[in-house]
Amino acid sequence: MSDVLSAWAAITDWLAVHAPASHATLRPGAAVADVRSTEDELGLSLPAELATLLTVCDGTVDASAHDRDPDEYDPGLFLAQHHLLPLEEIAHVRGGGGNTDPFWGSWVPFAVTDYSLPPWGGLAIDAGGRLATFHLAGGEPPSEPLTSPGYGSLGEFLAALAEALTQGTGPLRAGVVLQAEETQIRKSAPQAPA
Questions:
Q1: What domain of life (predicted)?
Q2: Less Cβ crowding at N or C end of the chain, within 10 Å?
Q3: How far apart are CA 181 and CA 183, in angstroms?
Q4: Mean pLDDT by 10 residues, the chain (194 residues)
Q5: Domain segments of the chain as ranges
């Protein structure tokens, strides 16, 4: 779990300096009792790495409900173009209390591509800690299985993101560079007269 915590610390430290509006979307960690309550609702144990992450950051808030710098690129979308879901949204997306869609099986969705839309795509983790992407075509579960985004674990994924942000290297570099360039373009664009 130290991989998750050290990578997350590097990510949040970088956000605090270079993307303060994104940093402002981070929610405080969930209480262990809340994690256990969500597990009871879902009828399964959350993967250990995800539970650890949620105890230091219980997802992000919807940036549209936040005062933010309009020049910063979509705050909260720093997790390789995904928003980290809080516990209650994880339970909502997956379903609980006997209402879980059979599609999910042992998979737990933990990040989505857009907060303003139903969760039609995102990242999921299974009971064994493997990562996958999911896409719900038209809001319906896909007929094909979840596919791996190329990281063996949440810790490896977060480490790659931390490397891309702090060193500008690694497999996630392209997405981070594009995001930084979009922010720079917005900041350097001429402003309309008031």
A1: Bacteria
A2: C
A3: 5
A4: 87 91 92 95 91 96 57 69 90 72 79 72 85 71 55 86 83 48 38 42
A5: 2-159
Place of tokens 């997956």: 94
Distance, in Å, from the CA atom of 180 to the CA atom of 184, rounded to the nearest integer, reads: 6
Distance CA 50, CA 47 (A): 5
Extract the tokens encoding 155.
Answer: 């810790």
* Cα separation, 160 vs 156, whole angstroms: 6
* CATH code, 2-159: 3.40.1580.10
CA angle 123, 1, 4 (to 5 degrees): 50
- Reported pTM: 0.78
Q: Are 55 and 63 in contact (CB under 8 A)?
A: no
Residues 87-94: contacts with CB within 8 Å, 24+ apart?
87/30, 87/34, 87/35, 87/38, 87/54, 87/58, 87/59, 88/38, 89/59, 90/38, 90/42, 90/59, 91/38, 91/41, 91/42, 93/119, 93/122, 94/42
* Direct distance between the N- and C-terminal alpha carbons of the chain, in angstroms, rounded to an integer: 51
